Amino acid sequence: MFRTVRRLTGRAATVALREVAEHPAARDPAVQRYVRSPMNWFFLFVAAVLFSVSWPTLSLTHSVPAYAQPVVAAFAALPVALVYCAPVAGWAVSVVSAQLIGLLIPTVNGWPWSVQVVHIISLLVLTFAAYLRCTLRWIPVVWVSTCIVFVLAAPADARGGWVFGLTFGAVVVALIRVLARSRRQLAVSTEQKQVVESQKAILQERTRIARDLHDVVAHRMSVVVVMAQTARYRLVDVSDEAAAEFEAIAVSARASLDEVRQMLGVLRTDGESTAAPNPDLDDLGSLVDHTRLTGATVDLVDTVAHEKISAAAGLVIYRIVQESLANATRHAPGSTVQISILSAQVGVIEVCVRNTAPTAEPVRLPGAGTGIVGMVERAAAVGGALTAEPTADGGFAVRALIPDHPGNMVAAVGSAVGASE
Question: According to a count of CB atoms within 10 Å of the terminal CB, is the N or C end of the chain lower?
Fold first, then answer.
């Protein structure tokens, strides 16, 4: 018999729990957050204990009909369940209900307070929880409202003590919170200062690195320039073709040294380095001539008016052509490179660099290339678009549409090649 009752009780409990879990209210995010917190369960247990005390003792202090006693007891005790999750809301319910009970429900048996002891305990707990959790500007509101309730609910000879206690608690809690907030602000300020100091250290390290790089690279490149320029005097039987090749090497090394110094100037923060002027469309001829010295066949068609193109657009076009020529010489040696810079439409410049299939083994360099990605980013930075893709004859083509002035935007040329060079 006992086993049967226990089995039936277990089944009933399981069914009840399933029904509760499947109820829409149980799926509410606020309800789920409440039941996940152990502190909420603790205060819910405290509220249940207070309710179990308030209901049977309510008739000893107040004249309340039996059917209304659980409601009054609930208003006195259950707001404690909100101490951890919503103390201000629980305090508001407790304050309003205490005031209404004191005004509407008479006391019996000479009870000097207008509310129960349980209600007094709940209100005190919720008041100090509200002191701790509400915003600082709301502490005076909580203090004044609670003091009014205690002045109306307490006996005449006890009102001053309760008001003093509530005032003392409000002042102490407010001072503690102000002190805690000041310490948090000091911690944030200290952290920000540390961030500034770390950034300063990073800038100093960048300056040191730039200085070291400049010294090393400048020395090596200068040695290359000197060796190339003095080769005809140091070596015996240097032909005119070899001398011209050495001179071309020296010219390219000097140009590379200038560009390296310009890039390293970005890292310098001490004002010691001066940036070289940026190249523009007028420098394309020199760029093509230097590329031809490598043995590549390069044809340039440039029909745009350089003075009508902004400096930013000119720099982007130059860098796109420069990177495309470098790619062609590395990956398609022996090919023919055709460069065209034309006016595609009003305010838009079309740049096309196309090379044929290579006739020699490509130069294999370590590392993954990022040149195409860099060209796409440069074009996008001025409102343009760029595509790079293989051609049907085994070559490669880079096509870009660049606005001649900042602020203009162009439509996408097409889908750029996903793989880097």
Answer: N
- What letter represents residue 410's amino acid? V
CB neighbours of residue 189 within 10 Å:
10
Distance CA 218, CA 99 (A): 86
pTM for this one? 0.47
Local structure of residue 78 (DSSP, 8 states): G
CB 257 within 8 A of CB 218: yes
DSSP code of residue 282: G
Per-residue pLDDT tens digits for 222-245: 667 767 777 777 777 778 888 888
The residues with which 85 forms a beta bridge, in sequence order, are none
19 plus 168 within the same structural domain: yes
pLDDT tens per residue, range 190-231: 888 888 888 887 777 777 666 666 656 665 676 677 677 777
Choose one of 139, 170, 190: the last residue of a domain: 190
74: confidence class by pLDDT, cuts 50, 70, 90? very high
For 246-270, give the DSSP string. Answer: HHHHHHHHHHHHHHHHHHHHHH--S
Could you tell me where the beta strands, DSSP code E, fall in 75-214? none
The number of distinct structural domains making up the chain is: 2
For residue 335, the enclosing domain spans 296-403
